[in-house]
Design brief:
With 121 residues, the chain is mainly α. Helices cover 88% and strands 0% of the residues. The longest helix has 30 residues, at 42-71.
């Protein structure tokens, strides 16, 4: 019985995996932003990465809903994931509008928030 409990604790939930993916994609966006400034293919990578990051944020919302609905737990992760999706939407709009004075700090904030959410799970 104790073996089953420890095995269950070691498994990662779909929500944890989604948050980890979100965090990784935001980190990769920082790398591609550096490439954007130094190479010809940086803009393509950063643009593609933005789409992947936005998809990862949507996946987090889905994972939060799926984690909440069957178990009847707290809907708090849904609010966090939805808020993060709003931040990702603002980030995309700012990137398209070429407003780096807000786009860059918001990206750093999003990475920190995503890392915090990952650590709390």
């Amino acid at each position: 019985m104790a073996t089953q409990a420890t095995a269950a604790q070691r498994r990662f939930s779909f929500l944890q995996i989604a948050i980890a993916l979100q965090t990784l994609t935001i980190f990769l966006q920082a790398i591609s932003a550096g490439l954007l400034l130094t190479s010809s293919y940086g803009e393509t990578l950063h643009s593609a990465g933005a789409r992947v990051m936005y998809g990862a944020s949507m996946l987090c919302v889905l994972a939060a809903v799926l984690a909440w609905k069957p178990g009847g737990g707290s809907p708090r992760p849904i609010w966090y994931a939805s808020g993060f999706l709003v931040l990702a939407s603002v980030q995309v709009v700012l990137g398209i509008a070429h407003v780096p004075s807000v786009h860059l700090p918001l990206g750093v904030l999003m990475f920190g928030l995503s890392l915090l959410a990952l650590a709390r799970r």
